[in-house]
Automatic annotation (TrEMBL):
Residues holding Mn(2+): 290, 314
Main subcellular location of this protein, as a coarse class: Golgi
Transmembrane segments: 30-51, 63-85, 504-524, 531-550, 556-580, 647-669, 681-699
Name this protein carries in UniProt: Glycosyltransferase 2-like domain-containing protein
Residues reported in the UniProt entry to bind UDP-alpha-D-glucose: 126, 155
UniProt source species: Microthlaspi erraticum
Amino acid sequence: MGKEEDRFTPVHEGHREPLFVTRRRTGGVIAFRVFAASVFGCICWIWFYRFTVPVEIDENRTGFARLIWLVMLSLEIWFGLYWVIIQSLRWNPVSRLTFADRLSRSYGSDLPRLDVFVCTADPVIEPPLMVVNTVLSVAALDYPPDKLAVYLSDDGGSELTFYALAEAAEFAKVWVPFCKKFNVEPRSPAAYLSSKANGLDSAAAAAEVAELYREMAARIETATKLRRVPEEARLKYGDGFSQWDSDATQRNHGTILQILVDGRKDKTVTVPTLVYLSREKRPQHHHNFKAGSMNALIRVSSKITCGKFILNLDCDMYSNNSKSARDALCILLDEKEGKEIAFVQFPQCYNNVTRNDLYGSTMLVIADVEFNGLDGNGGPLYVGTGCFHRRDVICGRNYGVEEKEFEEIQEVSEPEMIKGLASCTYDENSLWGKEMGLKYGCPVEDVITGLAIQCRGWKSAYLTPKKKAFVGVAPTNLHQMLVQQRRWSEGDFQILLSEYSPVWYGQGKIGLGLILGYCCYCLWAPSSVPLLVYSVLTCLCLLKGIPLFPKVWSSWFIPFGYVTVAVNAYSLAEFLWCGGTFRGWWNEQRMWLYRRTSSFIFGFIDTILKKLGVSESAFVITAKVAEEEAAERYEKEVMEFGVESPMFVLLGTLGMLNLFCFAAAVMRLMTFRDGGDFQTMGLQFVITGLNVAINWPLYQGMLLRQDKGKMPMSVTVKSVVFALSACTCIAFM
Ligand SMILES: *[C@@H]1O[C@H](CO)[C@@H](O)[C@H](O)[C@H]1NC(C)=O
Ligand SMILES: CC(=O)N[C@H]1CO[C@H](CO)[C@@H](O)[C@@H]1O
């Protein structure tokens, strides 16, 4: 009995040593603060200039001039304040260093149970072969197999995914021992084999495993292509397939639950427990998207393995570092500082980003700078993948409340009862989705859930081991990227307006730094409006000859010049420091502009419409596979348009507007030799010129390219018409 109770108590004295340390970067931070103070000084100077100096047009247009002045004043106040808010992300960065060897010394293989949840939703957008690679990569984590369980939640309710998982369960019997014996990395078979493609290990074992994998992959891919499960598989895994009714569809089916490998009782197992779950879905019941499936997994797993810790992964995100679970446990099992940490978030990394990251999909600065900053202020956001949670905290335990001992799991004698936990009515009129599990009703269920956990007194931690822990697939075209960002900006903005708003709900529960940190993201959507107005106004006023900024040679110009140059130089330096390239930075600036002037604008409008009750929410999964030609263009870093999207019309119109205004200004400059225009409107000239330069791929896509990825003709025509109308209107005003 004593042994049973001591289960999770460290055996050796060594446990007094901390399992991790938190490091602050002092030198860099002081330099940064001095720099930030200088920029802030200039911002105040700009505000002062704007307050005191009116915009001048000719004598009889004072009303119009005052209007423009007022708009500029509001915009500059907004930009200044937003700049102040985002400094919270750089004010106090920390990084964490873990000591996995100390963990091994104290715990040996007597680690607590860990449940891994992999979520997939559609066998077409998320191919089963990719999904099982993710499952296999976590099944081979460096963790005792009898303590590890992998759950696949299939919201597509697809026989193909089940079939693929059943095949993978067989293959795992070879794969997992192979990985551990030869200590291979990464442990996703596809990633491992492609990394070894240029010189496969000479070991015969490796060749044999590779062959087995290829056979399995071929079977799964054939089944996927034919959209039919082979007959012999149906016979072999009959008790699984028998759970599909003949009329089951993606949106209408009962719960399907199958334990494919049961590794719980036997200490000698080599493969962890593997479970397939497809929760019940009925058309008349709302299924709450990914949050609903996560909550079903939490309930079902609590009756099967009931891991003390939960790792949540997207199905396209394989484990690239078999030690990540141990790293996370160093934090969660630490006796002192670790006790207040509710979850450990790893960064999202991608393996198919081109060298200069055309679509800014790595979000390098967010991952390498901003999240460390959040960590210093109380903890990073939970971003829905690559995150280790404490089960009881995600189920609602407040900070400071005693941890309950977990009951040992009884025999799974009542599968029907467990299936009931995944029924579509289970969480109606319950605390699930509100106080327990992930929250419902928000497009970024993860972020709001993480925030609520932090508001209950918990902290979180951010871990960035050198060897990337989890690696996924980034969006490979512009439209996917913009759609994803639209959903994020919309969700974050909804959080700001919701009852869990960091501003009023978080008040007094989380620190000011973290509130501001959340606001940086929550304000994405509304911050788009000022930027849109600003970019339209600068170029139209350039066309019209209305100077908005001080003359280049006046001393008022100093703060404008300093802020423009310093902020950009800093951002470039930061980007290069994070390991980016110069062109990568340039691309990132473009995406910064595009996100704001398309995704975020639409995110803003969608949110407002939803608040007014005009439209419904939807969850768009971004596709992970690209067709061949598009993939070639992606490799060559040629921007992909190709679809008719209102977001592209907006981008196109802005691009064209900048082009026309800039062209007109250049012509005027050439006709009046004295350069008077440049004197009075130098900064407008530069801003519009930079906008034209950054939009170069857009102009190519609209006017020069012929391939399938160019901008659709209809979008180009609309954009040109809108831009010309705007120019004509302003010219006659
Ligand atoms: C995955 O890990 C390997 C080492 O095992 C490393 O070389 C590789 O760069 C990692 N992949 C990514 C995308 O970071
Ligand atoms: C889904 C996808 O586009 N995968 C690609 C990611 O990048 C690698 C290498 O750049 C390609 O081989 C994959 O096809």
